[in-house]
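Researcher: We are triaging several targets before committing to wet-lab work. For this one, the compound of interest is A1CAB. I'm pasting the protein sequence and the ligand SMILES. What I need is the predicted three-dimensional arrangement of the protein with the ligand bound, expressed as structure tokens, so it can go straight into our comparison scripts without reformatting.
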Amino acid sequence: MPLKGQKIGCLGGGAMGEALVAGLLGKGLVDASKIYVSDIDQRRLEYLSQKMGVNTSSDNIDVVKTADIIILAVKPYVIVPLLKEIVPAARKEHTFISIAAGITIEQLQSCFEEHIPVVRAIPNTPCLVGEGATALSAGKYADEGNMEKALAVFAAAGKVAVVPEALLDCVTGLSGSGPAYMYIIMEAFTDGAVRLGLPRDTARVLIAQTMLGAAKMVLETGEHPGKLKDMVTTPGGTTMAGLFALEEGGVRALMMKAVANATQRAREMADIK
Ligand SMILES: NC(=O)C1=CN([C@@H]2O[C@H](COP(=O)(O)OP(=O)(O)OC[C@H]3O[C@@H](n4cnc5c(N)ncnc54)[C@H](O)[C@@H]3O)[C@@H](O)[C@H]2O)C=CC1
Ligand SMILES: O=C(O)[C@@H]1CCC=N1
């Protein structure tokens, strides 16, 4: 068990910091007493301490000194100043994991004077409920042991894939940003049904469960989504009438463009100061 006896630090206790901590606690793989969160926002620390019972501190260096695995969960433009602050406390025995969009392993590594193990990851907010999707890449000083620990952190919070670093910006534009795409799809379909008279709460539950069920079908059957779509479409029936409206509106090109735009934006993040 790669996380056995490990203390996990999270620098930044915002949306993703909270989601990852919740994911780790949710499966019971790590005890709250082994998790240390730092943030400059005292209200976030109080909230996380009360909600999850984790250790909190306003001192990033304290957390780095205490923990074995350090998750960097601050905004991309805060990463470099944060690393410069904590560098004196960084050790080769640590495993650093950055989840910052766009910030490359090279940029992270150049902040350390020593050969510190760094892993770069792109998770997403459903880690909060143990259904996250994360892709990881190893930095040049991260060995198998470091990767095993990083994989275990994110596996506790959902599904994990290892990809070459060059593809992590694409992952950011796909599954990193993806929950937001799914939410507006659900919101729009709900509005469509409300327009026709269905109560909003009923419509929301039906469409959310439909998305969950469709996703489960893809993951559990391993079938191509096109084949699963064909199973729904009775010739001359309702589904093809609905699909025709989506295709006429260019839904597929729009979704492909969303991934491309978000990927491009991730590539730009590295230069935002
Ligand atoms: N929100 C998302 O869906 C995803 C976010 N990410 C990445 O995760 C990182 C965090 O994003 P969010 O959690 O959404 O942002 P957020 O703004 O919710 O959280 C960042 C936290 O860092 C704290 N902070 C700021 N300066 C600090 C410092 N010097 N030391 C310690 N804490 C400090 C803030 O007070 C805040 O609580 C970003 O780099 C983002 O690119 C990656 C994948 C998905
Ligand atoms: O919007 C963002 O920049 C972050 C990265 C992926 C999801 N949220």
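Researcher: Any quick observations?
Model: Residues 11-17, 38-41, 44, 60, 73-76, 78, 82, 99-101, 122-125, 176 surround NAI (ligand 1) (CB under 6 Å).
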